[in-house]
Structures are given as C-alpha cells and as structure tokens.
Amino acid sequence: MDDPHKPLRDDVRLLGELLGDTLRAREGEALYQTVERVRAMARRAGEGDDDAFRRLADDLAALPVEAALPVARAFAQFLNLANIAEQHHRIRRRRAYQRDAASPPQRGSCDDAFARLMSGGIEPERLCEAVAALRIELVLTAHPTEVARRTIVQKYNRIARALAQGDRHDLTIPEEDARIAALRREIAGAWGTREVRAERPTPLDEVRGGLVVFEQSLWHAVPAYLRAVDRALRRHAGRGLPPGAAPLRFGSWIGGDRDGNPNVTPEVTRKACLYARWVAADLYLRDLDALRDELSIDDASPALRERAGPGAEPYRRVLRAVRARMLRTREWIERSLEADDNVVPPKDAYLTPGELRGALTLVDDSLRATGQAVIAEGRLADVLCRVATFGVTLAPLDIRQEAARHTQALDAVLRTTGVGAYAEWDEPRRLAFLIDALAAGVPPLPAMPEASADDRDVLDTLRLIGATPPESFGAYVITMTSQASDVLAVEYLQRAAGVPAPLRVVPLFETSNDLAHAGEILDALLGLDWYRTRIGGRQEVMIGYSDSAKDVGRFAAGWALYEAQEAVVAACHRHGVAVTLFHGRGGSVGRGGGPTHLALMSQPPGSVDGTLRVTEQGEMIQALFGLPDIAQRTMEVYTTGTLEAWLTPSPSPQHAWRTRMDALAGAARDAYRAMVYDHPQFLDYFHAATPEAELSALNIGSRPARRRTDGSVGSLRAIPWQFAWTQTRLLLGAWLGVEQALSSALEGGGRDELRRMYREWPHFRSSIQLIEMVLAKTDARIAAEYDRRLVPGPLEPLGAELRARLDRAIACVLDITGDAELLASNPVLRRSIDVRNPYVDPINLVQVELLRRVRAGGDALTREALMITINGVAAGMRNAG
Asked: In which element (H, E) is residue 873 found?
C-alpha cells in the first residue's frame, strides 16, 4: 500500500535542502556544517543518548552569540518550513478524499456528518431546517502568541502555493524548474528578513494584520464552504441551503478589546471599524468588476430592464450603478480615515447590506427567469454568499471592558448629577436604581470636565458606538462579571451616551469563583421583567478558559466550565430564554485550545442549540484560516461539530461519575493552588526557570503582559503564563494538579471507573486526551537544563519535584487510556512531535544560555538572539499560547 504521508516527507526534505543551500550561499559552509552537526547530535539525543544531549547542551552553550544566532535561526526556519509542509499536506489529504469516489468521506466533513446524522434517525427535513438555522460566529482576536510578522506570513503562503503546484501531475520540466526557483527565492527572502519586529505593534497594526486573513483566504474560502454545505445537503437530504443562508460568520475583537490594554482608545476602535469596512468595499469592487466583465448578455427580465433603463447589456448597466455606489462608499471611508472624526456618509453609501443584496438578487432573479441559471450559479452566487456572510462590515467588532471600569465610570456620572456614590452601594440598591432608571428613561450624560482619563475612555467609547454607522459592532463583553448589576450598568451607560441601538451585553465569567456563581447571576438578571424584554428571548453568555485555568489549573477549570454551562443553560430554561454560549478559547490546551470537533462533542447536553460563538486567537488564526483550503476545512468542522452537538447531544453523566469528577477536580485544584499560589518558593522559581520576564521585551502584541505590576502569578495574564511554560517545554500550566487527582483515584480503587468514564463519557475522554496531547509535547530533560543553568541552588529541588510530578501525570494518563505510550491512538501527531523535537531541542538549549547572558547584562545582539529563540520554540510547539 502506498504511504499517504510520503509526499509530506518529500516536501519537508525538499524545503530542508533548499534552506541548506540558502545557508551555504548566505552564511558560508562553516555554518552549514555546524547546523548539520548539531542536527545529528540532536537526533541521537532524541533517541535517548544522554551523552549526546550533554555534549549538545555544552557545545551550544559555548558558542559566542554571533555564532549561536544563525544556528538558532536555521532551526527556527526549518520548523516554520515544516509547518508549511504539514499545512499543505492537510490540504493534499483532503483533496485525496474528495478525488476518490470509492473512499469514505473525510471525517468531520459535511458529507460524513450528514450521512451519519441521517443514519442515526435525523429526518431529511429536520436536517435541512437545522443547517439553515445554524448561527456560528468565529471571533478573531489579537493576542501576543502570533510571533510571525505579516511579511513573513505572506512569504510562507507563497511557499505553500508553490508546494501545491508540485502536486500537479502535468508539470513540465520548465515549470518544475520555475517552481523550485520560486521556493528557493522565498526561502532566501525569509532568511534575509527579520523575524522579530523592531517595534511593538500598535493596535491598528494588529487590526491591519487581522484583516489580511480576510483578503487572502476567507473571502475565497467562504463561497467554497457554502457550496460544500449546499452540495452535501442536496446529496443526503434532497434540498440545499435556502437563499441568503450563512451558517457561519465572523466577528472580531481586534481594535475593540480594551480590557487591560490602554492602547485601545476610542480612536483606535473608530478606525478599526473603518478599516474593516474599507477592506469589504475594496473586495466587493473587485467582484463587481469581474461580474461586469462576465455579464455582457442582453436577455433580461422586465424588472431588471426597468432598473437598467433603455439600451444594450442591461446587467452591466445595473452593476455599473452598484459599482459607483460602492466606490463612493469606499471614498467616504477613506475621507473618514483621514479626518479626526467620521465624515457624514453620502446618502447612497452602502452602510448595511440590504440594498447591495437587493441589487444582486435582482440580477440573480433575472438570470434564472431567462433560463440562465447556470450563469447565476457561478461568480454571482459567490458574491451573494459573501454578502450573506460578511455584510458590508466584514466582521462586526465586539467591545470588551472590565466590569470595574463601568462601575467606576457610572459612579462618576451619578456623583456629578448628585444621585449618589454608586460604587459604595450594595448589590440590591444598585439593581433597584438601575431597573427604575432603565424603565423610566435614562438621562443623558452630564458634562464632566473633571472626569478621570479612565472614565473619559469608557464614556467616549460609548459615544463612539452611538455615532458609528450600524452593523459595525457586535456585542459588548464585560470581563470579570461578578454580579447582575455589572450587566445593567452597561445597559444604563449605553442609553446615557445616546446609543440609538444599544449593543447586546454579554457577561463573561472566567475566574473559578465567577463560574461557580454564573447560574445565580443569570437567575437574578432573568428574573427582571425589563431585562427579559430587552434581550428578546435569547441570552448570550461568555465563559473564559484562560483565567480559570490559571486560577485553579486546566483540569479543575474544565470541570468548573462544564458545570457553569449546565447552570447557565438551566437558569435560561427556567425563565424560558434561549442561550448562546460564547467560548473564550485560546490556542494552547492550557487556555481551552485543542481539536474543534472534540471540544464541541464534549460540551454538556443542551448547551449547544445551533448557536455558538468562539474566539480564535493568536497563531491559530494563521493555522486555521491562513490558506483557503484549510479555512474551508475549519469552517466545515465547526459546522458539523455544532450540528452534531445540537442534534445528537451526549447523555448526561451518571451521578457516580459526577461525584468522582467533583473529587478529581477538587484534588487537582488543591494541588495546583498549593504549588502555584501557596508554595513560598514557587514564584521565585517561575521567574528564574522561564523567560516570563523577558517575554515583555518581545514585540508581539500591543497589550501589556500584566494587569498589575506586583510580579505575582495572579497579576500575570493567562497568555504569557502559558507561553512561558511552553518555552521551557514543561507546559506546567496545562497539566499541574492532574497528577495528584488521578494518582489518588487510581490508588484508591477507582481504576475501573476511570477507564469506563474514559470510554463512555465524552467530557472526561476529551479532558484526558487534551492532557495527553500536552504531556506528549513536554520534555523533562529540556526543562531540567533550564534549571541547571538558570535556577539558584536552593530552588533546584522544586524543579525536580515538578518534573517528578510530570512523570506521575504521564503514568496516570497511560493507566487510564491503557496505552503503552502517549498518543498511541494518534500516530500522525505522535510522529509530528517526534520529528520536530530534534529541531526544537537545539533552539531551547541556545535559549537557555542566551537567557543566562541577558540576565548577566547581555547586549542588544544577545537580546535579539533570545527573541529569535522564543520565536523558534513557538514555531516548533505550534499552539504555544
């Protein structure tokens, strides 16, 4: 049988050879030979040769920084190239499924899921209705784990396209030579480009970077995705998607997420909305030009001729008018971007998608009425798909701010108007005041010349929302929601600021304490008549994976999140209200990341009702959406996973399993907090053993790494917390505590029950599999090297204890799964990790020495080299933060 993964190995080999040629040409034979020697030694070390590992560590530590820098860069570049090859191989395998009529459909595809749902008893009519009713929104966010610069990402995308060209069977010899030459140029260009930004990106830099994925990938992927859904529905249920259906859409936090980021100002948010509108208008103008070129035909319906007026080529005349309006829309946006405030739009600007959709639908109806449906179902259908999915704003922008900032601002407003000191009131008094005011009518904001900068920022942001054209915004998300008044305060402030169409307000529960009280807070809110009327029968609730995991550990947080979702769903059901859950997932397992389908199928029964919002963060945006074929696959998996979780939910866990899980989560939480928050040496060890402090110097995000500057774990954001442990390969933030919980249960006679829970309960199986993935990426030997070179002697026993706990965690997971090695059931991922490690290990070992030198007062070159190693390890570990 042919090896389906041979093409991947061939691509990796080719890219490695071309990188080697670049090293020889640019840096000389000596560097190339050094890299090859290090690679050979790393391979032997990876096979268990401890002497080779020690020699490798010592040799790399002895290199001067001028020599260490290109060595680290070479290995980092190879890992980036391997990532490109793996991404392309995913596309290749997907195409192989689609090309072979005899093969089963790819797991997670619409063909696969629809067939399984119908064989499981879902009627065709029900399937069609459910797919049409899906409301999935993927919300892109800017977080400091996407270390690759935009210019580098663009080079990588061109490399991916060249690899795809190599899959053609009809390539001529000159074309193959040209393809190899193009790969050589891009690799040489990447080598000659700085990986690390010279300056920290601004929020507007992040906005522009986030929009690239729409221009280069999503604009092309969405029509293909919708065609795949429609085609599978027709094949299995006999009826396709209704016109205008958009099961999946996109949102954004980039330029609207001001929680703890003072750099996100009202002006940044204004321009973020405008940039998104500009990109949408520009892309539509390209589509309209292509449609005008195509629709040179004369046969048209009376309705279209009436719109077009007398003369030949009526479709072109209609589209010429649409194009002129879109051009004026883009020009208005450009004037607004150049001004200090939004310019009044022309009367015919496309501010909402309705009129654009109406004009295009008129063209579509005419083509179909005159027997030209084959033309309507081409480029025009694609443009209509884009209108349904992107509107004219591309991705509505959420606003996010911390609850305490709203309390502070409202307190200032009410003190100014003489109402009282709101911040000093207890919760019942706050609720009584807010409900009475909202029911009676909220007075406008007073003049507040003495307001603090923080209060002005909150109030000016609300005024901006009110002055911005419709559909630019999505939700207003409240971080650290802890009581019902936190939600009503934002409702009050929006009305006081004159927002004509107030944004829906979404409470975000993220700490373990807030998650535990989420149901009670929803009960308090939904018990208010005014509030139930306001939400119109549906409540959106966001749950945060990052801070909860940093608070109590990933395992305990996972159970807290599960129970919080159950409580939220139950509260909404008690009040006759539907619920949309918004999952704040990060890239790493420690922040809620992991395989999408696995995550969706492990949700509590009833928590997915066909609506879903999920954040996609950091480096995962490029990984999941950077190439059109990958983006299409990602959208399909979200669609099928959401559909299956809705139509065929998992059964509720047995009472005994819940009791067991309560005990496991409690033990994991206690063990985690005893180490991270209570151990007197832990904080000093964390600062010494990881590059946490140095991460703040890496120009990879506009947001500060800490909420406060006290140096505690509590003040550190969840992203650098996970990122720092990923760099040392200990990944402690994602597994610590599980070793205590599982070992106690296994030793206490719970083995049979845990194994049955693993087999039969999707949530528990998902939890164990995610931990297994993390543990497979750890490397205690590398972590020990950080201790050996960086950690003071009195702290070394703590590092040894943590590595012993890691060994216990691995043993416990294997005991439950019954496998002899980690990821035995996922050989593709196992092999990927094994292949990568010999390339990541040298970067780690260089990083350790560079950290030591930087802390001893290293110069600018040493600090730059350190940043490159951080970049390289992130590339090797993939979902790093």
From this structure: helix 860-877
